[in-house]
Amino acid sequence: MAENSQLLLEKGAGKQSNYYENCPGCAIERLKCSNVGIPLKHLFFIGTVTLSAALPITSLFPFLYFMIGDFHIAKTEEDIGYYAGYVGSSFMFGRALTSLLWGLVADRYGRKPVILIGTVAVVIFNTLFGLSSNFWMAVSMRFLLGSLSGVLGPMRAYASEICHKEYQALGMSVISTSWGVGLVIGPAIGGYLAQPADKYPEIFSKQSVFGRFPYLLPCLLISLFAVVVSVVCCWLPETLHIHCQNKEYAAYNGVEAAAYDSTLQERDGNSGDSLPTSQSSLLKNWPLMSSIITYCVFQLHDMAYTEIFSLWAISPRNSGGLSYTTSEVGETLSITGLGLLLFQLFLYPVVERILGTIMVSRIGAVLSVPLLSTYPYIAMLSGFWLSVVLDSASVLKNVFSVSITTGLFLLQNRAVSQEQRGAANGISMSAMSLSKAIGPAAGGSLESLKIL
Predict the structure, then answer these.
(1) pLDDT band of 441, cuts 50, 70, 90
(2) Which of 44, 157, 293, 331 is most deeply buried (CB count within 10 A of its CB)?
(3) In three state form, how does the secondary structure of 2-29 look?
(4) For residues 52 and 32, which has the higher predicted lDDT (pLDDT)?
(5) Mean pLDDT calculated for residue range 79-97
(6) Cβ-count burial of 140 within 10 angstroms (0-12 exposed, 13-18 middle, 19+ buried)?
(7) Rounded CA separation 72/361 (Å)
């Protein structure tokens, strides 16, 4: 027992390293000790999986207005935003109900199974959403997609475990960047590829499957990408420590993980800040809960913005909108995605190294307020200047969002030990999803009333 309760220590900490031969988490620790460089292959896996989970969340917003109209459920044009809000919210409501469960499953059985289930869910239910023939089918498919999409929480835990401590900020940045790019590129895909029989009649006829189901093509493209990612996930290494070969050691895993985290803290000079070691103590962990509360408030705002932006851009000029087509919305969001990617690749690492992750998040939050205040005045522009100003504002808004999210991800995962990360991220995802469920419903209702 004494031998089995030996702590996992990194090489160079002054003590001998001991590993469990059949433990995937120990294999990752051994790999981290032998390879101290940036784990580029694992970061690529993290980025692609996160991107596949993010794409279907917002891809519907550019065409949702027209989809609701085709369902003939709205009595007036002004009611479309009201029903669109409920379709947008159903995904997040489903995710809010199950995120904690997926976090607990990830802590018990590993990160990889939960991630794989989430990517397969995108393949199935996102495709079925594109085949929706009525309002309730659309709502139910989005709800089921959200319920089975437990990817983001385990991916955040995975990134913090696969990277050395000095690269954890980079891992979180990859997640937030991929997530941000997905939330931006998703609507671009939806805007360009929805109603293909009307936009590209030389390729798609009215009698084809894409003519009968005008919103299937963007959903199908995202689902095909998720198929590729699901195959890639088969080679995704597990990071959870499993030291329960028999009943005698069944309770050891949580103790070892907490002790291991404490040892790392002691090595880094932070031994005074002990981490909670029971699941019930998570709700009493103020550093964790404060970052989750901040994250929820921000995500409510961000999700409402994402839906309202597309509805506002498509709305007619006499209603305060821009009279954009879905293709023009897609073009704006494509430029936004490219700008966001360039920022994260070339500017963010420099800024983060100078100011620190948390300070970058604070600056992004402060600057978001005056930026969003300019949007009503953007609607007064037209032509070339409208495109330039709108594209610039959209890029800045998403740059600030990704900067804020990266800092909050890092705070949440550093506030707990390894055996608690799945549950902690599950709590975060449940609370955030509930906030995001409120965002589209409230935003859609306000937009339909023309309050915004």
Answers:
(1) low
(2) 157
(3) CCCCCCCCCCCCCCCCCCCCCCHHHHHH
(4) 52
(5) 84
(6) middle
(7) 43
Q: What is the CATH number of the domain that holds 283?
A: 1.20.1250.20
Q: Which residue has the tokens 């995802």?
A: 429
- Write out the DSSP string of 364-398: HHHHHHHHHHTHHHHTT--HHHHHHHHHHHHHHHH
Q: Are 339 and 390 in contact (CB under 8 A)?
A: no
User: Taking a C-beta distance cutoff of 8 angstroms, is the pair 249, 4 a contact?
Assistant: yes
274 within domain boundaries: no
Q: Which of 174, 142, 413, 154 minimizes the C-alpha distance to 295?
A: 413
As for how many domains the chain has, the answer is: 1
Asked, for residue 246, whether it belongs to a domain, the answer is no
**Burial (Cβ within 10 Å: 0-12, 13-18, ≥19) of residue 12:** exposed
Looking at residue 250, its pLDDT comes to 36
What does the alpha-carbon distance between residue 27 and residue 21 come to, in Å, rounded to a whole number?
A: 8
Residue 96 located in a structural domain: yes
Distance CA 14, CA 134 (A): 65
User: Domain range for residue 436?
Assistant: 25-240+279-448
DSSP assignment string, 218-237? HHHHHHHHHHHHHHHHTTPP
pTM, rounded to two decimals: 0.71
- What integer best gives the mean pLDDT of the chain? 80
pLDDT value, residue 440:
58
